[in-house]
Design goal:
about 120 residues, alpha+beta, two-stranded antiparallel sheet, 5 helices
Length: about 120
């Protein structure tokens, strides 16, 4: 069964850290469909390629997201805060896909966004 996630006011006050595949960022889940990536986030510079050397679908989406926000990126670092509608879109932007962003976002105690938001 797939996890169901729920936003709450309590979650909106927690600073989550994303650190994976050479990327790093501070994130707040402000509203149900609004995650704030704070300026100064470091992006993974190069997408991981498929075994045949081609770029995968997630990396193509990541490149498109970065192109959409190109005016807010310099030398693979964000220069302004950026809003994303979902943790997964945020993860694809930061690291071109890969691991589940719900478990990659952690609070100061190591508790994941998944731990905070899953409806039991």
């Amino acid at each position: 069964m797939k996890d169901t996630h729920k936003w709450s006011k309590e979650i909106s006050e927690i600073e989550f850290t994303f650190s994976d595949w050479g990327s790093f960022g501070k994130v707040f889940w402000q509203k149900r469909k609004e995650l704030l990536l704070k300026s100064g986030a470091k992006l993974t510079p190069d997408p991981q390629l498929n075994k045949d050397g081609t770029i995968n679908f997630s990396a193509k989406v990541g490149k498109a997201l970065r192109a959409d926000h190109a005016d807010k990126i310099k030398n693979d670092v964000t220069t302004e805060d950026i809003i994303f509608p979902s943790p997964n879109e945020l993860g694809i932007f930061l690291r071109y896909g890969g691991e589940n962003t719900w478990i990659s976002l952690k609070d100061k105690d190591g508790k994941t966004l998944n731990d905070w938001s899953v409806v039991k």
